[in-house]
Automatic annotation (TrEMBL):
SUPFAM superfamilies: MurD-like peptide ligases, catalytic domain, MurD-like peptide ligases, peptide-binding domain, MurE/MurF N-terminal domain. This is UDP-N-acetylmuramoyl-tripeptide--D-alanyl-D-alanine ligase. It catalyses: D-alanyl-D-alanine + UDP-N-acetyl-alpha-D-muramoyl-L-alanyl-gamma-D-glutamyl-meso-2,6-diaminopimelate + ATP = UDP-N-acetyl-alpha-D-muramoyl-L-alanyl-gamma-D-glutamyl-meso-2,6-diaminopimeloyl-D-alanyl-D-alanine + ADP + phosphate + H(+). Residues 90-206 form the Mur ligase central domain. Involved in cell wall formation. Catalyzes the final step in the synthesis of UDP-N-acetylmuramoyl-pentapeptide, the precursor of murein. One of its GO terms (molecular function) is ATP binding. It is an enzyme of class 6 (ligase). The keyword Transport does not apply. It holds the Pfam family Mur_ligase_M. Residues 287-374 form the Mur ligase C-terminal domain. GO terms for cellular component: cytoplasm. One of its GO terms (biological process) is peptidoglycan biosynthetic process. The lineage of its organism: Bacteria, Thermotogati, Thermotogota, Thermotogae, Thermotogales. Keywords: ATP-binding, Cell cycle, Cell division, Cell shape, Cell wall biogenesis/degradation, Cytoplasm, Ligase, Nucleotide-binding, Peptidoglycan synthesis.
Length: 427
């Protein structure tokens, strides 16, 4: 039995058959490695209300469409168009998710505001998030991701931003996108596809007539000063020649501070009051420069992902604000393709600014990390843990240990184990 499209409304849509719950709509997507159509029967056996497919699978409760990914996009677009919300689109090579969370926190203190969940930011994930959780809020804050040129344009065509935010353009995924120039061209599509744009003044490539600017060197919204004092971060922003002062609890990195500055700019462009109240309880997302006390020093978990540019920001933060000796536990940067060796060699020179480097050789690319200050390397998480226990984390430790690599390296397993041990010892 074939269902009508309107019968699907009100049900949760899922693209992974393992996540199907009774009443869900399973969307079969043909990927490079796996074809969702092979799992249609599994989804129905788990209680799926219907399956969305591109071909007749010979089952009941199927809806056949020409392209399931495009159908998700058009359905989400139709849902959004009914409410005519203001749309904030955010992209960049680094910091998209954190910026989305901070912009949402500020806006939601004053207006009903929607954000796409987690990192559901692709041509599949973003429509899914809207279909399943958007309830007509008057502002949408949408994180938009790019793997290849054209991804941002596709998302902007579906959900045209009133304000497009371009944070930065770096080397992340250069092996997939093709070249640094193509990455920039693809990211710039958010500017081209938006009514207005807010972009990084510090990057001289980002200039256009409809752009407003945030940054540290100039622009419409400027980070003038950032100080960490008595457990709080003191911020000074400048707009229209006037300075604005804010005090946020806890330690805020330069990168997260710039995300607050973006929120400051967005609310001004929307003519909404900048209300930082929700930021008083804001916690950095896991693996994004989480600062933990470790004996007399610090453990910093920046293990969520890595590019050369995010490494550079992290190490600058360490050198400026954290105690020596500084040890960096690092691993490979993935998806760099033909540029991998050059970027890992560049990273090696950067790492020589810290006191010691421990390399996790879990991925092949890490062989090109050859800093002169490497004190240990191993493909084993357990061996690295044992080295840290014996040679770094001693009773009189008062320095800093920094963890960073691409997600495939799974450095968070070492971080979590160390934090468990410290917590158990404190108890």
């Amino acid at each position: 039995m074939c269902l009508k499209l309107e019968e699907l409304f009100g049900h949760r849509f899922v693209v992974d058959s393992r996540q199907v719950q009774p009443g869900d709509v399973f969307v079969a997507i043909k990927g490079q490695r796996v074809d969702g159509h092979d799992f249609v029967c599994d989804a129905l056996a788990k209680g799926a209300f219907a399956v969305l497919v591109e071909r007749d699978c010979g089952v009941e409760n199927q809806v056949v469409v020409p392209n399931t990914v495009q159908f998700l996009g058009m359905l989400a677009k139709e849902i959004v168009s009914k409410f005519q919300p203001k749309i904030i689109g955010i992209t960049g090579s680094n910091g998209k998710t954190t910026t989305k969370e901070i912009v949402w926190s500020v806006l939601s203190a004053e207006r009903p505001t929607f954000k796409n969940e987690g990192n559901l930011n692709s041509e599949i994930g973003l429509p899914l998030s809207i279909i399943n959780t958007y309830r007509g809020e008057e502002i949408l804050v949408l994180e938009m991701a790019q793997r290849v040129v054209g991804d941002i344009k596709y998302l902007c065509d579906l959900f045209p931003p009133d304000i497009g935010v371009l944070l930065n353009v770096g080397s992340a995924h250069v092996g997939v996108a093709g070249s640094p120039e193509q990455i920039f061209r693809g990211k710039w599509q958010i500017v081209e596809g938006s009514k207005e744009a807010l972009v990084n003044f510090d990057d001289e490539r980002m200039r256009c007539r409809k752009c407003k600017y945030f940054g540290t060197k100039g622009g419409d919204y400027v980070l003038v000063d950032r100080k960490f004092k008595d457990g709080s971060t003191l911020l000074t922003f400048r707009m229209d020649g006037e300075d604005y002062y804010y005090k946020l609890p806890g330690y805020w990195t330069k990168a997260s501070t710039l995300s607050v500055l973006v929120a400051f700019g967005v609310v001004d462009m929307l003519d909404i009051f900048f209300n930082p109240t929700n930021l008083f309880s804001f916690k950095p997302l896991k693996g994004r420069f989480n600062v933990h006390k470790l004996l007399g020093g610090y453990l910093i978990d920046d293990s969520y992902n890595a590019s050369y540019e995010s490494f550079k920001m992290g190490i600058e933060e360490l050198l400026e604000n954290f105690p020596h000796p500084i040890y960096a536990v690092v691993g490979a940067m993935k998806e760099l393709g033909e540029y991998s060796k050059a970027y890992h060699e560049k990273l090696s020179r950067l790492l020589e600014e810290v006191d010691g480097v421990i390399v996790c050789d879990a991925e092949e690319e890490s062989k090109d990390i050859d800093s002169r200050n490497i004190i240990y390397r191993s493909p084993s998480h357990e061996e690295i843990l044992e080295f840290l226990r014996k040679h770094v984390i001693k009773e009189n430790f008062c320095g800093t240990i920094y963890f960073k690599a691409s997600r495939a390296v799974q450095l968070e397993k070492i971080v979590d184990k160390l934090l468990e041990e410290v917590s158990a010892n404190d108890a």
